[in-house]
Amino acid sequence: MNKILSRRALLRAGGLGLVGTAGGAALANLAAAGPETAPSRAQATPGPGAMPGTTGEVDHSRNGFNPTDILTDFDYGRVSTLPDGQTLREYELVAMDKTIEVAPGIDYPAWVYNGRMPGPTLRATEGDRLRVHFTNSSSHPHTVHFHGIHPYEMDGVPGAGPGLIQTGQSFTYEFEAEPFGLHLYHCHAFPLARHIAKGLYGTFIVDPKEGWPAVDQELVMVMNGIDIDFDDENDFYAVNTIPFHYQNHPIPIRVGEKIRIFLVNLLEFDPINSFHLHANFFHYYPTGTSLVPSEYTDIIMQAQAQRGILEFSYKYPGLFMFHAHKTEFAELGWAGNFQVRE
């Protein structure tokens, strides 16, 4: 079977400019029905920063989330104090099947936590007691596996503790938040690649007891991809799911502001991803488990589930790009801009 709707076919067709209302419907039909004649009216649509981009806008209200909001949306849970004085944080995670418009006119049958892709950014302080109340409202068995240190029974893998949580069932994962750093969570049901690729993942931040050094803005960026025809090759690439969102909606910052990015790579089917910052350098803290940066650079690479913290300030105003330095990823959606003002 020929892969009509492939990343290379899209690039040969002239980029993502074809993805408007009619073009998106045609591509969605290809994804659903299999090989047909590819649309021929493709034209690249340069966006800010002269990268190709999509025509039109996805319906964020229908999706139930907006990538701009995901940048700064931290879930600290319901906070109380245990009898011994330890802080208790309780979170609700619900796995569900949900159709997401990933590009204008293209719907994707995702599996998600709490109706969004990526799932909520859970945030705690080192040493807190966490209770994550998980309910599976999806049509498939799922789990929640946290990166960090916890008992075997709380590992969220088949055979450990409750194992797979079946449709309609619930389980509470309970453990202490450690070590401090930038972590993640995801479903660990099999086939693992499919459960991750379809959207069951999110960011898990454990702040140091003394807190991070002060910055002006903190942003969460989850690098991911979309395989819309389920052939184990990504057709779109993005940060926080929607291709080119931050190109069409640049992230506003000011000259001299100190920015901290929590960067997580949850790209499936491609072995490595990258982040490149234009006209600037950043301090990089791998996994965020040390307060001392490992390097001062303008580009880093991450394999799947690797993550790190980036800190930087801009010296000059202007519209500055950030993107994957794998050109194919950038041209198929993993590109954005910072709008730096005085």
Structure overview:
With 342 residues, the chain is mainly β. It has two domains: 60-207, Cupredoxins -  blue copper proteins (Immunoglobulin-like), CATH 2.60.40.420; 217-341, Immunoglobulin-like, CATH 2.60.40.420. 12% of the residues lie in helices and 37% in strands. It contains seven helices and 21 strands. It has a six-stranded mixed beta sheet, with no helix packed on it. It is globular and about 50 Å long.
Which CATH first-tier class of the largest domain would you pick? Mainly Beta
Count of all domains: 2
CATH superfamily of the largest domain: Cupredoxins -  blue copper proteins
**Taking Cα atoms only, what radius of gyration do you get, to the nearest Å?**
20 Å
Structural class: mainly beta
Shape assignment: globular
Strand-residue fraction? 35-45%
Q: Low-confidence stretches at least 5 residues in length (pLDDT < 50)?
A: 1-5, 11-15, 20-45
The largest β sheet comes out as:
6 strands, mixed
Distance between the termini: 54 Å
Summarize the amount of helix as a percent range: 10-25%
**What would you say the CATH architecture of the largest domain is?**
Sandwich
- How many β-strand stretches? 21
- Look up the CATH topology of the largest domain: Immunoglobulin-like
The sequence of SSEs as H and E is HHHHEEEEEEEEEHEEEHEEEEEEEEHE
The order of strands across the largest sheet is 12-11-14-19-16-17
Mean pLDDT: 90
